[in-house]
Amino acid sequence: RPTIVLLQGAFQLPEVYHAFVKLIEAHGFPVTQAPYPSLNQADLDFISKDLNDDAASAEACIRTLVEEEGKTVVVVMHSYGGLVGAEAVSEALTLKHRKARGLPGGVAHFFFLAAFVMDKGQSVAKTVGPSPDHDIVDGRFIMRDPLAKMYNDVARVEAQYWAARVISQSAAVMDTQMEICAWKYVPSTYVVCTKDEAVRPAVQEMFAGLAGSAVMRVVGGHSAFLSKAEEVVGLVGEVASQSF
C-alpha cells in the first residue's frame, strides 16, 4: 500500500492532525508528517523561514521514502500544505518518471483537502492579498479568529481546545513565489469542504480547476479532518488504493 505523506495547514501545531493520522494508519496506510520550519517556534529565527524552507523539509521526507525505501507515496495536503507539496516534488520523484526507468516507488498522487493551488510566479501576498482574517506583527502571520474560521463545525469543546493552541507562522511564507507547481504533472484529487469559512468553497473549486483535479466534496468546514474525519479518511483510502 502507498505511504501517506501529510502536509499540514498554517498556524497549527502538528498535534492537531494526530488523531487523523492514527485513523489513516488504522485503515492500513503508513503516514509520515513533515515538519515546517516556518512554524517552528523553538527556532528564534523562524520568522525568516519561508515556503521554500517548508518545501525543502517536505522534499527531504518524500525523497527518503522514494529513493531510499522505494515507497509509492500519496501526498495529502491541507490548506497551506497544497503550496508546500506543489513545491516539494520534482518530476524525477514521480511514480511515472521512476517506473519508466525501472525504478521502484515515487509520488503517485496529490490529495488536496481545502488546499491552496497557485501557478508559477504567484504568491499568497500577490494572489490573495491582505485578509481581514489575519494580522502580521513583527514578521509573524497570525489568524484572528480561528474558532470561527478554522473550527466552525468542530465539536465546541474540541474546537476551543485547538483554537487556543493556534500559533503564529513566519509571514515570509506569504511572499514566496511558486516555481515548481508539481500538480502540473502529478495526478490529483481535490476535496472541497462545502462549509469552509477560511477558504471559501468557490475558491476551492477554482483551485481544483487550476490543478485539473478530480473533485470530491465533503459537507464540512476547513478542519474537516477533525469534524468529518471518518469520511475524509475514507476518501484518502479510496484514492490511495487506486494510486499504484
UniProtKB/TrEMBL annotation:
Gene3D superfamilies: alpha/beta hydrolase (3.40.50.1820). InterPro entries: AB_hydrolase_1 (IPR000073), AB_hydrolase_fold (IPR029058), Sec-Metab_Biosynth_Hydrolase (IPR052897). Transmembrane segments: none annotated. Residues 53-233 form the AB hydrolase-1 domain. It comes from the Eukaryota. PANTHER family: AB HYDROLASE-1 DOMAIN-CONTAINING PROTEIN-RELATED (PTHR37017), ESTERASE_LIPASE_THIOESTERASE DOMAIN-CONTAINING PROTEIN (PTHR37017:SF11). This is AB hydrolase-1 domain-containing protein.
